[in-house]
Amino acid sequence: MAARRGGMAAALPLLLLLPPRRLAATRAAAGAQPPESVVRIPWALRLRLQRGAQLRRRGQGEAAGRSGKLLLRSRRPELSQPCWQTVGRWERPQLVSAGWKHRKACGDYFQLEPSQEAAPALQAPPPEAGQGPSFAEMGLQPALLAGLEGLSVGRPTAVQRLAIPALRRGRSALCAAETGSGKTLAYLLPLLDGLLSRPEGPAAAEEEEEEAAAGPASPRGLVVLPSRELAAQVGAVAAALCRPAGLQVRGLTGGGAAGGLRRQLRAAPPGAAVLLGTPGALREALRRRFLALGRLRWMVLDEADALMDESFVEPLEEILAHAPLAAGAPGPAGPGEARTQVVVVGATFPTGLSQTLGKFTDVGRFVTLSTQSLHRLPPHVRQKFVRLKGRDKLPELLQLLKERPASGGAVLIFCNSASTVNWLGYILDDHKVKHLRLQGQMSAAARAGIFASFQKGDVSVLVCTDLASRGLDTSSVQLVVNYDFPDTLQDYLHRAGRVGRVGSKAPGAVVSFVTHRWDVDLVRKIETAARKRTGLPGMDSSINNPPPKGG
After folding, report:
1. Cβ neighbours of residue 352 closer than 8 Å, sequence gap 6 or more
2. Nearest-CA neighbor of 238 among 218, 221, 262?
3. Burial of 410 (0-12, 13-18, 19+ CB in 10 A)
4. At 477, phi and psi to the nearest 5?
5. Considering the entire predicted model, what is its pTM?
6. Count of other CB atoms within 10 angstroms of residue 216
7. What is the mean pLDDT of each run of 10 residues along the chain (551 residues)?
8. Which of 101, 107, 111 is nearest to 518 (CA)?
9. Helix, strand or coil for residue 66?
């Protein structure tokens, strides 16, 4: 009898897993007395718990049987994803960040491991394409090849192999490629080659020199850039390319009185062929008739997403209105092409770009040049996401800077506002951390030379806003810290693109502090794209979409 009772007692927990009707029938058949209080688990919940247990056992068994390199490393090993595992397009992967909106998730993290050593831009072309053409085989002018030797540039990158032949044919184009892939040379080389292959006659040259001395400047090439720092950087590259060819380059940036604009335009030798400027300075020069665009042969809009910011849209539209963009005018590719060749360049593109350009030129004639890695997370850069409370961000940052080796390269610390940059700078001063600050509210005099000093290595830590996330050459940077998580996925791509660039000695790493609930929404999209090996959602790489009716 005791054995029988013991057997019934051991069977009771198993009976509780049965549906209520089957449980009552089983008890009646066994002659068991129902307990005074019974906790019944809903049938749907039981099935879900059983499926979860089976999946965990299956995952642990597969991981044990096929252990290897990880694509995503989690603090919780059961949520890590090995490289061999494939997540289907319509499958919903189990995310580490799924529960990060709860306060108990603070302290959790996951890390995207590098899946390749070299940047996608440096990968060799497919075997059927051979080694790909060199700069000389692309038919560039010898003077430009000499300029490339002075810049110590060897073989072209992926975007350069794609864009240079297409742009040399004179078509207006959208050039879209991942950050750090060499887009500056991709548009400068073919457009400068066009100026050299179609020089102006002696009469036009003499007229240009007379206008340079007494009238407005009339460049044949114009590059519009969103910041002074980027204008200075691209200007240095353009000057190095133009020097052997005898072409002159000048820059135009604002931040001073109108007389400063006139001095900048007249500082360069007469007949300067290429002008690089920011939208505000170019608009002011056009309004005061220091600048004329009647002779413009090509125009570049670099970092297009930044130029489409609300602070730049009106100046940009005025510049486009002054340029000879009307379709049907005689141009470099014949009478059917717009007189001015327009090239829009960027790693991400805003939705209103085609509408803005469509007011002045036929965007349907633009060709799209995009690389395969566009809008994808950099596969050669380690990226870590840490869920933190706001008060824990500063200690975590100080610990990162303390653990960084002396030979660990430069560090970029991104904040979302100028006030945070200033506040964090004061804290770093208190902790004796030597650094520089860069944000858009600084005066032109204060900003002058800050980024150049950082590039030269005088100071290895730069605290900045997204002003430093677009286009700037940061090949010495090996660590990016998102002290404030970026507001958009586009901003994350640009910030992550500050490391692992063409010319960098090491791929580098990105560490992001995730504090707000809205930050978690973006992190989930990033984690999902990483697990599925797809591009980030919501990115547009086409300029040929027709504008909406009535727009």
Report:
1. 308
2. 221
3. buried
4. -80, 130
5. 0.79
6. 17
7. 48 49 56 63 81 65 59 94 89 93 94 90 62 85 92 89 93 90 93 85 53 73 93 92 89 70 68 86 92 92 90 93 68 52 88 84 89 90 96 96 87 97 96 94 84 89 93 89 96 93 87 96 96 87 47 33
8. 101
9. coil
- CA distance linking residue 518 with residue 521, whole number of Å: 5
Tokens, residue 84: 């061999």
Phi and psi at 514, nearest 5°, equal: -110, 115
Six token digits for residue 427: 């804290």
> For the domain 141-370, what is the CATH code?
3.40.50.300
Tokens representing residue 446 in the block: 């204060």
Q: Is the separation of the CB atoms in 149 and 202 below 8 Å?
A: no
CATH for 72-119+378-532 is: 3.40.50.300
Phi-psi region of 508 (alpha: psi -120 to 50; beta: other; left: phi over 0): left
Tokens 């963009």 map to which residue? 325
**Beta-carbon-side half-sphere exposure of residue 392 (alpha carbons within 13 Å):** 12
> Is residue 240 within 8 Å of residue 147, measured between CB atoms?
yes
Give how far the C-alpha of residue 210 lies from the chain's centroid of Cα atoms, to the nearest Å: 43
Tokens coding 172: 């207006």
Same fold for the pair 72-119+378-532 and 141-370: yes
